[in-house]
## 1
Amino acid sequence: MDIEEANLTLSRIALKTNLSEGPEGIGKILRNINNIKGIPIHDLSKAVSIPVPVIAAIRKEMEKDGLLTRDSGMILTHLGESLLKSIGVSGKKKLFLDHGYIFPNFLKDIKLDLEQIYKNRPEPNFSLDQSHVDSVTAIMRAAYLYHHDAVEGRKILLLGDDDLTSIAIILLSQELKMYPKEIHVIDIDSRILDFIETVVGKTEINCKLTNADLREPMDEDLRSQFDVFFTDPPYSINGFKLFVSKGVESLKNESGKYGFINFPFRPPDETVEIFNLMNHMGLALQEIINGFNSYVGAQIYSGKSNMIRCVTTFNSKPLYIDKSLPIYTASRK
Amino acid sequence: MDIEEANLTLSRIALKTNLSEGPEGIGKILRNINNIKGIPIHDLSKAVSIPVPVIAAIRKEMEKDGLLTRDSGMILTHLGESLLKSIGVSGKKKLFLDHGYIFPNFLKDIKLDLEQIYKNRPEPNFSLDQSHVDSVTAIMRAAYLYHHDAVEGRKILLLGDDDLTSIAIILLSQELKMYPKEIHVIDIDSRILDFIETVVGKTEINCKLTNADLREPMDEDLRSQFDVFFTDPPYSINGFKLFVSKGVESLKNESGKYGFINFPFRPPDETVEIFNLMNHMGLALQEIINGFNSYVGAQIYSGKSNMIRCVTTFNSKPLYIDKSLPIYTASRK
């Protein structure tokens, strides 16, 4: 296959599957199949940050074009390999960088404590886009907040907490003997609040719980009160806008107050939209950590999401919310 | 000291020193001095991502207020400690997370090769905001590009290359036997191009060199040509806008083409401005890695900057540049 035909093939498949990542995204999929022969669809989805159903559609097109066969997983045909060669890609991936935030070994005991607590937690309610992080992620979230001085002496608001990050923060506070001033959980699902109450009731931590729908106006006593907000919003743009906007509304009207937002990779155009919303709220990005969060079970986004850390400016403000818009991905079907 | 007085003190110092990070930034400085007693001003600057001259002004105010004394470095007085206690901060930092991208051991030989080459490199021209990264950073940049499939088979443009990242990419290509299709360096400083030519002349790599000022219109044959751009722009907003905009102009008009931008932490309001520019160019943020780059020698930003990775969308476009505006920080004095 010559280079022109290779590029045409990539473009044609991208167009046919309406892929927002373009021909570049198709090339990325081919490279990854070439790197790990027989790669399962969920692993491929994780590697290229493209949802499983989209990959399935692309796989079908590639099979039609004779680029791909399936054995136990996906394998390139000679034609697929020849396409890669003509765009200058030789073969295996020879370099993989280790990266990320490393779980501190001295926290393994509280990880076990958390796992004990998890045994009795409420099951996820998928209609609310609930999906639980694993225990390592929950502890790492708490540790990450500590690392950035966002716990000790702080008033922290969690907007939605089916992940029980609040409990991880409390366990870590007790371990370090460095306490938040207040930890406040707001959730639409009273089962979660009840569960947190039974766990935290045994401690001296100042923990407040509010049962509310974020689409409704926020209680006066939650506005302009907090040093830190933390959220893992529904994975729609409206969900992101709503949860982050309410987070901004909850923070003190000062520069440098913290927002921690957990959100998966989205297609490039939606990604621009998401960071546009953050800019409009006057939130200054500090860090984006790929794959910080691991979720239990198989999901459309393959069980990984990014941690986004930001701080307020003097001009931070919540955005207008049209509360009739759907926010849960389940409601978008 | 009671909490009200503590908060007033933080606000007063923030106002007096015109600190864009606000009272939160003053608190952060106090926490860090408390964590590492006798901390040198450059280390403190690095820890809180605030430039050294600004820290010096804040130190002066804190001394006036009796919060701080100086011995070999900065130390809190009893009053300073009491302020922290009243905002709920107990004492030492008990948790530090290891993070980042880990240097692969098998690349240490090419790191040594690069250091040999560095011995004869041109001295930095500070009027052009040149400042060299260390050899580990240069190799890690190349490795990071490989990790993200931004080298093999790619046409890569480096906008400014006093860091000699091009040479690191070439050394790594030879090591891995996975080659870029083209590596192109554009620089205003012909000394750098001459130096790269002497090094690359001995290889088979397709390396092109263009001596040009990015403030001038870009050559036709550099526009819409590349898969990847890489830049470490001057640390002014105009510098960022100019270099990144030219990077976008150089990329093929497709979704998913790569931009790698190296830039230090700025105050929150400037940070919003910077990511606003990226949004306006239609660049989708993928990752922000804190402290990825280490620079040789002491600088105003304490020798560290972040790696920002982004990809194009279908709507990516360069911005209008007012070429009369200063772009180098030296010219802003």
Note: Chain B has two domains: 3-86, 105-332.
## 2
Amino acid sequence: MEARGRNTDKTRRMVLDAAAKVVGTQGAGASVDTIARHAGVSKGGVLHHFKSRDQMLLALAEDLIEQFRAAVHAAIDPHDNAPGRLVRGYVNATFDELVSGDGNSEFAVLVATLFSVPGVDELLRQDSRRWADAFDADGLHPQRARLIMHAADGASIAGLYGGGDLASLEQSRQLLLALSRQDGPLIAP
Amino acid sequence: MEARGRNTDKTRRMVLDAAAKVVGTQGAGASVDTIARHAGVSKGGVLHHFKSRDQMLLALAEDLIEQFRAAVHAAIDPHDNAPGRLVRGYVNATFDELVSGDGNSEFAVLVATLFSVPGVDELLRQDSRRWADAFDADGLHPQRARLIMHAADGASIAGLYGGGDLASLEQSRQLLLALSRQDGPLIAP
């Protein structure tokens, strides 16, 4: 049973990785057939795991959300115990992915395609609430934390289609990190 | 000739409006046939104007970019002559569209679909450079102007999928407007 569980997890992982690759290059036209072929799994095997193409894409969206969450936590400096450490992890994880530049346009197509999958909007709303709660617990003034998160998100869209060069991306990162090391509202209410 | 020019412009406008509607509801699966039917134009007529489906979608992306540019300029307060007036127009145009809430999810699908059309990335890069130049001429410290623009863009993604409620969108708008009424770098370099 344990071996079977491991194989199931491994198949699931292979299908999600193949789906990310195929959807990132082919967009909404990516078929279950092509994804199955890339994963080295039968179409029936894919559908056994995910029931339908939309369910597979929904699982992929969930997986990407979790991967980003893990990247943020991995980017937190373990010696950083000041308020805003999670905000700094969020900023660094966002910009690390952008400046690596690897597969940015594939990632843009992938995200754009997943955006129109039924249920993904609800996943994003839940994720947005989870980040808001986590930032509240991070100790920085909420107005400041929200501004930094929105600015990191906005810079990352520009970065995805190559709208910002590396130097200006790096400037944006440093500005957001510096803003997270001060505290209080940016404007008195 | 003049009448013919007007008819040509009118047909083009009808096709682009129909394309925005159909792509916003059907995503990448939207066919030229369906768009032509919605526009009340023959498929041949659509292809006469735009040569190919991709050319039509590229023209639609260009049209949306121009519409947003026009909305920003329309949102500038004519009595506002202080540095940052264009930044304030950008912020207000962005949030006006979001809080109207009308067709946000259609708009999200439309933008996501256009993102993967060949040539749209280059349009966005050009647009990004035009905004950067326009903000430079707007008189606010460039670091401040860029942060406000990125934060407005980031808030607008959250708003598109309903990640921010109306009250928090309005708070974000007021914060960004207030930041544009002060000047200088947000953090000393």
Note: The domain at 1-51 of chain A is CATH 1.10.10 (Arc Repressor Mutant, subunit A).
